Amino acid sequence: MTDTALADLAKRVRDKAGVRFVLGIVGPPGAGKSTLAERLRDILNESGNVAVVAPMDGFHRSNAELDAMGARGRKGEPDTFDAEGYVAALRRVRERQGRVEWPTFSRITDEPVPGGVVIEDEPIVITEGNYLLLDDGPWKDVRGLLDEVWFVDVPDAVLVPRLLERFLAGGRSREEAEAKIAASDLRNAALVRATRDRADLVL
Fold it and tell me: How many other β-carbons are positioned within 10 Å of the β-carbon of residue 41?
């Protein structure tokens, strides 16, 4: 995305922001949601500390929990997240219920990091993740807590190499990475793309 396009997006947010504006950035795994959220935050913060990123990935269930569920191989699918915890934290942010310690996710340890981000009185909160627009289970409450949602999409031909690089960097073998992408991530991508018509803007 060009600097001009990013500046236009930042202006769109500034023009709508008030006491608390919560922006959701959604898309399939590997689409570039985190990169967009962080670059947008940095542009907004050139004028002061006004924006913070609150990633959905912080609500991955721990590997111990996933092992107990027999779900480690499906990590990244909707039920492998603490969706109830995410909604509760997002509601606190939406209602400006004081300081919120928000978890992040480490790709080094492959585990959530408690309190990785602290949200205080920043008027703009950017939350990004795969399942912000799902309309079933606890995920159905997310959309109503967001002022605006942007959908970031790229074709599978771009997603697959990105995901492969990510998994190899995380220590998986090529065979393990390719199996994970085929069995889980591409299925997740299709599920997420089915929600794009609920977004305010498609990028």
Answer: 19
Residues sharing a CB contact under 8 Å with residue 152, sequence separation 6 or more, in sequence order: 25, 26, 27, 31, 32, 33, 36, 203
Measure the N-to-C terminal CA separation of the chain; round to a whole number of Å. 9
For residue 45, how far is the Cα from the chain centroid? Answer: 20
Please report the sign of the dihedral spanned by the C-alpha atoms of residue 82, residue 16, residue 96, residue 48: positive
CA torsion angle 49 55 61 62 (round to 10): -60
The pTM for the full model equals 0.90
pLDDT tens per residue, range 47-62 = 787 999 999 999 999 9
Task: Spell out the residues 6+ positions from residue 139 whose beta carbon is closer than 8 angstroms to its own.
Answer: 78, 83, 87, 131, 132
